[in-house]
Each structure stands twice: as C-alpha cells, then as structure tokens.
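Subject: for your reference before the review

Hello V.,

The reviewers asked for a structural picture of the protein, and I figured it would be easier to keep everything in one thread rather than splitting it across files. Below is the amino acid sequence we used in the manuscript, unchanged from the supplementary table.
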Amino acid sequence: MNVYFDNAATTPLRKEVIQIISNVMEDCFGNPSSVHAFGRTAKTNLETARKGIAKLLNAAPQEIIFTSGGTESDNMILHCAVKDLGVRTIISSKIEHHAILHAMEALKINNGIRTLYVDVTKDGSVDLDHLKALLQSDDSRKLVSLMHVNNEIGNILDLNAVGELCHDNNALFHTDAVQGVGHFTFDMEQLPVDFLSAAAHKFHGPKGVGFSFVRKNSGLQPFIHGGAQERGLRAGTESVHNIVGMQKALELAYVSLEKEKVQVNKLKSYFIEKLRELFPDVIFNGLSGVENKSTYTLVNVALPIPADKSLLLDFHLDLKGVACSKGSACQSGSNSGSHVLKAIQEAPATDWPSLRFSFSIFNTKEEIDYLIQVLKEFLK
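And here is what came back from the structure prediction:
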C-alpha cells in the first residue's frame, strides 16, 4: 500500500485542474503580450484568472502579481521593500521558511540591512510583546515578515494582531501565507497586511506558479526587468496554463472549504488519538496537536523511539510506502536538521525522531490505520 502524508510539501492536483491546464495548453497557446487574436485570447484567460483570484481574497485585480511560487514571492517583497520603500530594518523569526531567512541574510550582507528576530516561545508562538519592543527600538523604516501558518509545526499567526501592531508603529507587514491560502479564508480589504505570498501547489494546483499580493499604491518598482508584464513589476511571459490552473484550484478549494476542512480535521484528530494509544509519551511539536491553534492539515510529532533504532525509521516508512517528512521538504538532502525544531524543542523531544505528517482531502481513515500498523511493526 502506498500512502501520501506529505501534503505540506506539495499536494496532488485535482482532476479538474489537470483538465483545465490541458485545455489551455492545447487551445490557448498564444503569448498574452501579443496583439493578434491568439495573444488577446491568452490575455483574456490571464486577466480572468487574476480577477478570479482577487475576488476569492477580496482584493483588487491589480494587487495580484503572478510569480513562479512562494520563494520568488517572498524574495520579491523583501528585496523590493529595501530597494524601493526605504526599509532599513527587517524583523522576522528564526522559524520562518528559508526563502525569508536566506533573503534576509543576503540583504544584510549586500545592503547593510539590520536584521532582527522576534522571540518565539517553546510552543512556537510569536512573542508579541517582544515584537512591539523591536518595532520601537529605533526610528528606522521597518518591514515585519512573519508566516501565517508555519510549514513545519502548523502554528497559526494572528494576522490582525501583528498587522495592527506593525501599522501602529509605522512598519510594513508581509506574511508568507503559502501554507494558509486555500486552507483558510482571507479578506485582504480588511486584513492589515501590506504584502502576502502564495503558491499554487499547496492547494492542489500546479508547481512553479504562485502570486504576491501587493497592496495598491505600495510604491514597489520592477523586481525582474524586461517587458511590462505584471503591472511592470515582474517581467517575463506569463505561464498562462499554470495561472489558469492555479485560479481553478483556488476556486475549488474555497467552494468546498468548510466541508473539506471538517473532513481533513477528522483525519488529523483520528491520527492524534491513534498515535497517543501507540505512543503514550508522544510529544507534539509546536501547537500541531492543539485544535484551532494549528492548521488542520498537519501534525509534527516527536516519537519516543531510542536513538539507535530511530535511524531506521525513515527507511522503514519508505519501504512500506509511507510518504512523510522529517521537516520541510525544501531541506531534504540536508544533514543540518530542522531549524524550526532546533529553535523550540527541549529534552526529551530533542533525543527522539521527529516526523511531519500532513493531510489532504485525498487521504482516508484506512490510510491512517495502515500507517499506525506500520509503526507498530517497526516497534516490534
């Protein structure tokens, strides 16, 4: 049996998304910047998708800028904030995605930007009192970048609280919402967020495409130079078939959101129950085991397995057809371990193997039963 519990890394495409991508590739191959009929048809598809995404987020169409995914979107916002908006201090946390952390380091080295990191508690929560202190530490122009849903431990950030704190202190606020868009609703008209990043492959859309929300009149200038695509901010011929596929995936995600949220949350709760039966001493990293404080799509656990035996756990799971993750998939192949878990874990969890299991509507209770059985076999 093969079971896929790594949906935080990427999700399988919905059949409807595959179909519409195929249709666009076959029937709408024109360059959207061309003025002839083929180009105009492609442009219509592109702008219809933009309007569709904007409507789902209650944003203006011109505030949606298509990119190659979350990493580019994150880099675009941080680099442009420094280049165009006079930002001299970037505040983030040590448990962000490397797309943020590495971009900050590059800006520190190459542009002399001051980088500050807000404290996080042992459950992975952002210390808002410390954030306020950092915001008031000097008069420099600041950008705060904090993720909406942590990709490893699932903690949910209070966007309203952080955004209001930023704006009260004349700071800009960016959120990496790659794990949130398509799984939670966003009202960009009401949210005190200046910039947001999203990626299609996290909500059953295609890889290699995403978008940045850039609030109107932000002052951002071109990030990639060339043509005048994407309101002049991001040059390059748009991947129309992927963008249309992304819009379809997001539309389907929100049409069935409440129903599918209940379905996936039941799987998570069932998994937690079965894990506790098998491992009474199991530790849930971050807030991933707490309903309503973490995303319903993932669980990150430290399993009480001796160190010598734990070395074979990943091999055993893979051999039995179980796909999961030791941390972020973007780190796979690295021996450095999870920077997120290093920042929050304490003994005995630090001595145990930690695994992230992430779920989608395509998973079943039977698959969880199979996973529990595989873990039982490993213990024997």
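For the response letter, the relevant points are probably these. The first helix runs from residue 15 to 27. Residues 7 and 358 are 5 Å apart (CA to CA).

Happy to draft the paragraph if you're swamped.

O.
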